[in-house]
Amino acid sequence: MTILVTGANRGIGYELCQQLKEMNETVIAVCRSSSSELDDLKVQVESGIDISSDASVANLVQRLQGGTIAVLINNAGMFQQTTLEDLNFDSIRQQFEVNAMGALRVTEALLPNLKAGSKIAMITSRMGSIADNTSGGYYGYRMSKAALSMAGKSLAIDLKPRQIAVAILHPGMVSTDMTNHSGIPVAESVQGILQRIEQLNLQNSGTFWHANGEELPW
Ligand SMILES: NC(=O)c1ccc[n+]([C@@H]2O[C@H](COP(=O)([O-])OP(=O)(O)OC[C@H]3O[C@@H](n4cnc5c(N)ncnc54)[C@H](OP(=O)(O)O)[C@@H]3O)[C@@H](O)[C@H]2O)c1
Fold first, then answer.
1. 32 close to ligand 1 (CB < 6 Angstrom)
2. With a 6 A CB cut-off, is 177 part of the ligand 1 pocket?
3. What per-residue confidence (pLDDT) applies to 152?
């Protein structure tokens, strides 16, 4: 099975590539720039791809030459702090470009590579849940992840006739660069993400899950 992962050079994306490689899957690791760890995995690395750029994503499509993708994991994302006292609209805009539009841009561009039975995973965040927002703040990240979750839900509906299922996944609070390495081990989160993708089908497509299997409120 061919599985494409964005944001593959570090964090959750790298761990996804590592576990998938151990499972003998064919991995396409997409990143802006590779890392020595990713190079050592000996999977297909497509570097130089910025998901916020149309031209960059078009370049990825060209490189893949129409090859079938069984699972597309839209993992790449960014986190910047934005508080009401210090709103930075450029930062909010940038988080939208990457977190919300980046994942949609990649998905739309790769639709010809997705066939009946293919699956898409959107790595969103519980911080994009409106119902779960009890602490405020984080305007750019929360808004962009709420938008990503909404894109995932529309994709689930629009792609059902093509028999492509979409999961909207929160990885948990995971120890990566994004969290300054506080949270659960990345291996545990990725095991959960891969289980959710395994259990994803056309009936449960469009559900918002925690990697641990709990269904989350919008
Ligand atoms: N860690 C958590 O607790 C947590 C919780 C909820 C959701 N998430 C989500 O999980 C995903 C992975 O996060 P992580 O914890 O692994 O974070 P991370 O270690 O900061 O990794 C982020 C990845 O996204 C890539 N990326 C950022 N901007 C990009 C762009 N414009 N084009 C292409 N790639 C880009 C980064 O590449 P560069 O190295 O080139 O920057 C990196 O590979 C993200 O979507 C994040 O929002 C994480």
1. yes
2. yes
3. 98
CB under 8 A, 24+ apart: contacts of 93-100: 94/52, 94/140, 95/140, 95/141, 95/143, 95/144, 96/140, 96/143, 96/144, 96/147, 97/52, 98/51, 98/52, 98/144, 99/141, 99/144, 99/145, 99/147, 99/148, 100/144, 100/145, 100/147, 100/148, 100/151
**DSSP 3-state of 172:** coil
- Is there a contact between 216 and 171 (Cβ–Cβ < 8 Å)? no
Q: Which of 78, 180, 188 to mutate to test the pocket of ligand 1 (most atoms within 8 A of CB)?
A: 78
Distance, in Å, from the CA atom of 63 to the CA atom of 174, rounded to the nearest integer, reads 32
Distance of alpha carbon 8 from alpha carbon 18, whole angstroms: 10
Question: Tens digits of per-residue pLDDT, 66-113?
Answer: 999 999 999 999 999 999 999 999 999 999 999 999 999 999 999 999
Task: Give the single-character DSSP code of 178.
Answer: G
Give the strand pairing for 208-210 and 114-123.
Answer: unpaired
Q: Do the Cβ atoms of 186 and 11 come closer than 8 Å?
A: yes
Ligand 1 pocket member 192 (CB < 6 A): no
> Domains in the chain, start-ordered, CATH in brackets?
2-210 (3.40.50.720)
Q: What is the pTM of this model?
A: 0.99
Helix, strand, coil shares of the chain, percent, nearest 5, are 45, 20, 35
For residue range 162-206, list pLDDT tens digits in order: 999 999 999 999 999 999 999 999 999 999 999 999 999 999 999
